[in-house]
């Protein structure tokens, strides 16, 4: 197969005048030799009747439970068949920065946020139990020979080893962990990488106002398109990887 593949992607024309709503589709050539897929925080969602407090605090897990079996197997199979590296970022052992100095006021504010903002006093125990026992979903688990990274520096080292300059992120959630957690897009853009995503292979953290129309999801895709890279769609990417 060719060392490149052509794929339609969604981009956003941020500057004005732009016409329509700014979203456009164009086809570009990508290097199969310099592109990798990053599977990040693709945890197994607990069953609906388990860890109810975690579901209350992180409601996108129900959506993730649908995305994992439907989207991940055909997408990752096409990626692997084409020979693109798959890197796994789990965040089990993130970098530990020096602790900030504590005082009674800081602790009171911290406790208030935990109890009244997130995850909520009634949900803390379930969230802590879930995080202690979570595992990567079977659809997203690393295959033999696939590398994992726990820190931005480790992911950068993998990219350097494999000659990668473009990372395509899949996992959960596009406007939270994939953006801000160690090894996410903010970190890797600082190194100079293009950071893209696959629209159907991610979910988002929503709030009461945004949830009915998935506003945070659409805003996150806009942010990726403007600030970080490109927005792929899984059927287009699978076809491009399979035929180029």
Plain-language structure description:
The protein has 244 residues and is α/β, with parallel strands linked by helices. The chain has a domain at 32-98 and 136-229: Rossmann fold, CATH 3.40.50.850. It is 40% helix and 20% strand. The chain is built from nine helices and eight strands. The protein has helices at 52-57, 61-82, 104-116, 124-133, 152-162, 177-180, 185-191, 215-228, 234-243, and strands at 4-12, 23-31, 35-40, 86-89, 148-149, 166-172, 194-203, 231-232. The strands form two sheets. It has a six-stranded parallel beta sheet. The chain has a two-stranded antiparallel sheet with strand order 1-2. Helix 2 runs parallel beside helix 9. The protein starts with a strand and ends with a helix.
CATH homologous superfamily identity of the domain at 32-98 and 136-229: Isochorismatase-like
According to DSSP, the number of beta strands is: 8
Number of helical segments with 4 or more residues? 9
What's the gyration radius in Å? 19 Å
Strand content: 15-25%
Average predicted local confidence, pLDDT: 94
- CATH fold category name of the domain at 32-98 and 136-229: Rossmann fold
Which CATH class of the domain at 32-98 and 136-229? Alpha Beta
Report how far the terminal alpha carbons are from each other: 6 Å
Structural class: alpha/beta
| Largest sheet strand order | 5-4-3-6-7-8
Bulk shape = globular
* Spans of at least 5 consecutive residues with low confidence: none
Instruction: Identify the CATH architecture of the domain at 32-98 and 136-229.
Output: 3-Layer(aba) Sandwich
